[in-house]
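sorry for the late reply, my laptop died twice this morning and i had to redo everyting from scratch. anyway the thing you sent over, i finally got around to it. pasting the sequence first so we're on the same page, its 294 residues, then the predicted structure underneath. double check i copied it right bc i was rushing
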Amino acid sequence: MSEFVILRPWWLAVLPVLAVLAIWLWRRGPSAGGWERVMPPAMLAAMRALGHLQAGGGHRGLAAVAAAALIAAGLAGPALPRSDAPLLAGTGAVLIALDMSPSVTDGPALADAKAAAAEILSAVEGRPVGLILYAGEAYDVAAPTADPTTLESQIAVLGPGIMPDKGSRPASALALARRMLDGSRDAAVVLISDGGGLDAAAVAEAQRLTGDGVRLLALTLDGSASGGGDPAALADIAATAAPARASGPVLAALAGSGSLGDDPALSALRFRDFGPAVAGFAVLPLLALFRRRR
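ok and here's the structure:
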């Protein structure tokens, strides 16, 4: 039962109020059509014994309270996750931010970076995809396009000395990605890097990017030429991080970024809602209110 959830928990606030009302009705005693307010208790009991007042109609208000409690519990939405929940394909743009600093291009990590970028092009499934290259500065090589095959040749020719500057500033790449994706929905950035140059500015840019609703993913590169990379640090700023040679988790996250998520119109499809069934049991105490009295 660890997966049991309440879809609309604010309705549970009604239950304590109903509990107080039920206690008050119980302590007040059975109703006698208002006669209990003007007749002494002894006379009221005698009238009931003689059959002039309904003896079996006590605590009828409790039935209404019980029905209200069942309805409130049903509206709260007790539910279990569905194993067959639908998954919607992502539609937002994907930006590949590729680290082309010397620590990557001058070592074996470059081949892994190019292979990882090619895998992303194959996995975007019709989503617009763009390319950013960065070293000391970041450059928008290609705006998001619906034809990722146009980027294959650009990625294939990447090599040492292609960047006009040295260094490694992922902060500039993340800032550029945020500008390129401004106003986009369901967008994602995949940072392919050895973790070099990941400073406080990069962390701040990552927070701004995710604050704008863009998912930040990372593929880490081993074999840095300078040995100054820090692949593990990328996991601290990315929602999902994985080695470039085992990119499955990141590719799966890209495929799932168009899932139901927190959309209030669609999130209920992720769960089997038992609320209507629970509310349906309110019929039982309500039927007692319609019972013929003699």
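The chain has eleven helices and nine strands.
thats about all i looked at so far, will dig more tmrw
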